[in-house]
Structures are given as structure tokens and as C-alpha cells.
Amino acid sequence: MKLLLLGKSGQLGWELQRALAPLGTLVSLDRTDGGDLSDSDALAATVRRVAPEVIVNAAAYTAVDKAESEEAAARQINATAVGVLAAEARALGALLVHYSTDYVFDGSGDQARDESAATGPLSAYGRTKLEGERLIAEHGADALVLRTSWVYAARGGNFAKTMLRLAAEREQLKVVADQIGAPTGADLLADVTAHLVRSATADRSLCGVYHAVASGATSWHQYAQHVLRRAAAKGVTLKVQAEQVEAIPTSAYPVPAPRPLNSRLDNRALQSRFGLVMPHWQTGVDRMLDEIL
Ligand SMILES: NC(=O)C1=CN([C@@H]2O[C@H](COP(=O)(O)OP(=O)(O)OC[C@H]3O[C@@H](n4cnc5c(N)ncnc54)[C@H](OP(=O)(O)O)[C@@H]3O)[C@@H](O)[C@H]2O)C=CC1
Ligand SMILES: Cc1cn([C@H]2C[C@H](O)[C@@H](COP(=O)(O)OP(=O)(O)O[C@H]3O[C@@H](C)C(=O)[C@@H](O)[C@H]3O)O2)c(=O)[nH]c1=O
Ligand SMILES: [Mg+2]
């Protein structure tokens, strides 16, 4: 089997390079070597040249606040280019694997949302990611669209690493306590992707949209505290201790892009349809911290 991976250098792309390797011949690209999603024509030409049986797209415009002032750029990467991949996948008869986000939802209520829940993005990032999902559906490509949340990895930038840095530099740390979701490891997501690719290439009826998140839920505030507690236990010197992190409401942290308050995603369909178990979010976070600290 021939696979094409786009966005090989991101948090998820890096883990996918590892997880997809045993499935076949893997061609991994980033924007510097033919996999630039800002150039639709070049992207289409690349897919035709490689002619893969599976396309895995880990590239995205993920700067949530910046997207508010650069929506056109975000749309090109998160939607238009995804439409190109879907059209090329359809023409090749290839399976397309793509990632989406909790930010396609408005975050109302306090229940976990399943795949059929109504969308309602609050931000430019969320809107463009939803447009990407819709273009895949419109092109009729066989696809796995995996909505995930709060992604972290040992390699790359993420909230956990930001908290470790700020707690070492600053005297004070304030973190929102009313946004709830599940931190999900790029390593877990990559391994799950490999399982799904094996299953869905053998049985295309498994294609669809799935919520692919770790189990359990937490607030960004509790997540920050958890990270700092583990770091302190490992002897890392911090100026702000876990107990000193101030819990604030979203209204006290003004940023350009509104975030959903309730980012809980129901991962039961993914687990039951593919016979997988999604571990609790703390399992993966602790493993990542053991690796980087
Ligand atoms: N990070 C998160 O918290 C979440 C992410 N997701 C989704 O998961 C997927 C993977 O995200 P993650 O790995 O965390 O994101 P990262 O930001 O770590 O990686 C995104 C990658 O996309 C690349 N990229 C950006 N623009 C282009 C372009 N024009 N052409 C080619 N590559 C480009 C970036 O390259 P460069 O570094 O050169 O810009 C980077 O390597 C995305 O679809 C994202 O929307 C969903 C929920 C949460
Ligand atoms: C740095 C910092 C952030 N925050 C808040 C801002 C925000 O509400 C929350 C998390 O901050 P981030 O900048 O990591 O948030 P953000 O970049 O919005 O994270 C999102 O990225 C995209 C790509 C996704 O798809 C989402 O699932 C989600 O992971 O914490 C604080 O309250 N205090 C702080 O000191
Ligand atoms: Mg961010």
C-alpha cells in the first residue's frame, strides 16, 4: 500500500511518520518539498504524481487567534486545499484521512457531543475547519474525518509546554477554568489512525466522521495544575506552583478568537466501531511529561 502524508513536521505529522510507516510505502511531505497547501495546483499535481491509495492530511492552519485576522489564509489551508485533496482522492479511488476539531461546535451545554450533533463554530479557525469537513463530504471521497481536541506532543508547541515555560518564568499564572475538554496525545491519535486506515481500506463502509479524543475531561486550569504538579514532583524548579495557578473565567482572558466552553466530544462510536479503547487523558499527558522532563 502506498500512503501520502501531508504536514509531516507538525505535532501529529511527526507521530504519523512513525505510526504509518509499517503500513506500506510512505511518502511524507511538508510545505518545503511539494506538500504546500497554500498552492492548490501544485498540491493536486503532487497527489497525481505520488498516486497514493491513502492520503493522510495532518497539515493545518492552527493559529486560532491569528486566524481571526487571516481568515482567507486559514481558509486556503483548512478548507480549499482539503477540497483539492478530496477531489484527487475521489479521482484516484484513494482513502482520505483528515483531522478536524472541537472548535466546529459552539460549546453550549455540559454534555459530550456525538458525531451527529449540530455544529456552530465561534471562530475563524472553527469555521474554516468545518468548511474543510463539508468539502470532503461534497466531493464524495471515501474519508475518515477525525475530530480531536487539545492536541499535545513531546515534539512541537502546545498548552502543556507553554504552562511549563510560563511557570518557570513568571511570578503569576492565570488560567481559564470554565472551558472543558480532553487533552489528546498526537501519539495516540497517530496510532489510532493506523488502526483505522487498516480497517477502512479493507471495509470502506467504515468511512465517516468520528470523535477521536482521549477519555475523561478537564479544564485548562486543572490541566495546567496537573502538568505543574508532575513537573514539581520530578524536581523541576518552578516560580508558580500548581496550587498557585489562579482559576479565572473565560471573560477574564480576552483573546481575538472565542473558544467553546464545552469541548467534550463523545468518543464511543470510534471505540465501538473499530474495537479500540481510548485511554484517559492523564495517561498520555503523564507519558509525555516523563519523556520531556
Ligand atoms: N493542535 C491542536 O490542539 C488541535 C489540532 N487539531 C487538528 O489536528 C491536526 C494536526 O494538528 P497539529 O499537529 O496539532 O498542528 P501543528 O500546528 O503542530 O501542525 C500543523 C502543521 O501544518 C503545517 N502547515 C501549515 N500551513 C501549511 C501549508 N501551507 N502547507 C503545508 N503545511 C502547512 C505546519 O507547518 P509549519 O510549521 O511549516 O507552519 C505544521 O507542520 C490539524 O488538522 C488540526 O486542525 C484538532 C484539534 C486540536
Ligand atoms: C497561555 C494561556 C492560555 N490560557 C487559555 C487560552 C485558551 O482558552 C486556553 C488554551 O490556550 P491555547 O492557546 O492552547 O488554546 P488554543 O490554541 O485555542 O487550543 C486549540 O487549538 C486548536 C488548534 C484546536 O483545535 C483546539 O482543540 C485547541 O487545542 O487557555 C489561559 O487562560 N492562560 C494562559 O496563560
Ligand atoms: Mg494554540
TrEMBL record:
CDD domains reported in the protein's UniProt record: dTDP_HR_like_SDR_e
Cofactor note: Binds 1 Mg(2+) ion per monomer.
Enzyme Commission designation: 1.1.1.133
Keyword Cytoplasm: no
Alphabetical UniProt keywords: NADP, Oxidoreductase
Domain RmlD-like substrate binding intervals: 1-292
Reactions listed under catalytic activity: dTDP-beta-L-rhamnose + NADP(+) = dTDP-4-dehydro-beta-L-rhamnose + NADPH + H(+)
Pathway, per record: Carbohydrate biosynthesis; dTDP-L-rhamnose biosynthesis
Class of the enzyme per the UniProt entry, highest EC level: oxidoreductase
Needed cofactors: Mg(2+)
Any one GO molecular-function label of the UniProt entry: dTDP-4-dehydrorhamnose reductase activity
Family statement drawn from the similarity comment of this UniProt entry: Belongs to the dTDP-4-dehydrorhamnose reductase family.
Function summary: Catalyzes the reduction of dTDP-6-deoxy-L-lyxo-4-hexulose to yield dTDP-L-rhamnose.
Protein name: dTDP-4-dehydrorhamnose reductase
